Amino acid sequence: MMKWKKKTISKEKVIDKNILILLVLFMLGILAAGCRHSLALQDGSGNKKDGLTQENGESDKDTIVVGFSQVGAESDWRSANTESMKSAFSRENGYELIFEDGQQKQTNQIMAIRTFIQREVDYIVLAPVTETGWDTVLQEAKDADIPVIIIDRRVDVADESLFTCWVGSDFELEGKKAAEWLNRYARTKGIAPEDIHIVNIQGTIGSSAQIGRTKALSNAAREYGWDLIAEMPGDFTQAKGKEVMESVLRQYDNINVVYCENDNEALGAIAAIEAAGKRAGSDITNGEIMVISFDGVNADALGYVKKDKITAIVECNPFHGPRVASIIQQLEAGKTPEKFSYVDEEVFSANKTVISLSVDGKDYDVTILSEEN
Ligand code: GYE
Hints:
The chain is of the alpha/beta class. It has helices at about 1-40, 75-90, 105-120, 135-145, 170-190, 210-225, 240-250, 265-275, 300-305, 320-330; strands spanning about 65-70, 95-100, 125, 150, 165-170, 195-200, 225-235, 255-260, 290-295, 310-315, 340, 345-350, 355-360, 360-370. The strands form two sheets. It has an eight-stranded mixed sheet with strand order 7-6-8-9-10-12-14-13, sandwiched between helices. α7 crosses α8. The longest helix is centred in the N-terminal third of the chain and has 39 residues, at about 1-40. The protein binds beta-D-fucofuranose. Beta-D-fucofuranose (GYE) binds near residues 78, 153, 207 and 295.
C-alpha cells in the first residue's frame, strides 16, 4: 500500500516538474520574442516602426507605415482620392501604405483601424463614411499613441484631441457657391423664385459632403423662396442617381433644376432625363432641366459642362495624398500641423450668364469651360 502510494506521488512530481520546465521555456520564449519585437519597433529617434523589410530583405528602419481606411469606391472623386494617396505613400517615397477599402460601411472602417492599431502602424489616415460613431475607436488609437489624420469628410467627436488634424473641403461653402450661381442666373434671366422647382439628389446621408451641400441648398431655397420639391438620397453613385431621377420624374412634372450632390449622380440623372424624352440644359424657361453638381473630377462630367448638359459644377478637390504626406513630415519633424486645413476650389460652367459669385463676403470667379479648354 505504502509502496503504491509512494510510487504514485513520485509520478505526479515528475509530471509537475515537466510542466514547470515547459512553462519556464514558454515564458523565456515569449520574453525573447518581446525583446526582438520591441527592438524592431524602435529606431534611433525612438519612433515606432514595425520592422517591415524592403525588397532587398534588409530591415528598413526609416519606412513610415501608414494605415489608410478609405470609404469605398463609390465615385470618380473617390477613385482619384485613392490614387492620390497611393502615389503619395509609395515605397519610393519612403512609406509602407496599408490600404483598407471600407465598402461604405463604418463597421469595416472601425475594424480596419483596429487592425492598424494591432499592427502598430506609425500613422492612421481615416476618410470617414459618416461623421458620427468614431469616439471609441479613435480613443483606442490615441491610447496606442498613434496619430490619426482625418481626410475629406469630418468626424463628429466629443473630444477633438482624438485626432491630430483634418484636411478636406468646406462642403457648405461648396453648396453656397452652387446656390449662389443659381440665384444669380435666375435673377439675370428674370426667372421668379417660385418658378424654380428643385430636386436634390443627396449624397450618403450623414456624410459631411451631404450635410454641408444639403444645408446650403435648403437655406438658399428658404431665403430666396425657391420650390424645393424633394430631397432624396442618391448615395453618390451613378446608378442611384439614375434610379432617383426616374422616380421623381414619374412623380412630378414641373422639375426644372436637379441639384446632384456629386457628378456621378448627375451622370445618372441625365441618363434618366434623356430616357424620359426630356433635355438636360440651362434653358429652363423652355422646358430644359438644369443639372448642377459637385466634384469636377470625372472627364465625362466635365465634357457635359461644355455641352451645357451639366450647367455648373462646383469643384471638390480629391488630391489629398501630398497634403497628408506634408502633415506627416511636419509631425516627423516634431511640428504641430494646422488642426483644420481647407482646400481651394473653383466653379466650372460653360454658361457665361454668371461669371463671378460672392459668398460670405468673398468673391469667386467662375471658370468658363469651352471645347478649347
Ligand atoms: O463629392 C463624392 C464622394 O466626400 C467629398 O464623396 C467627398 C464626396 C464626393 O463620393 O463624389
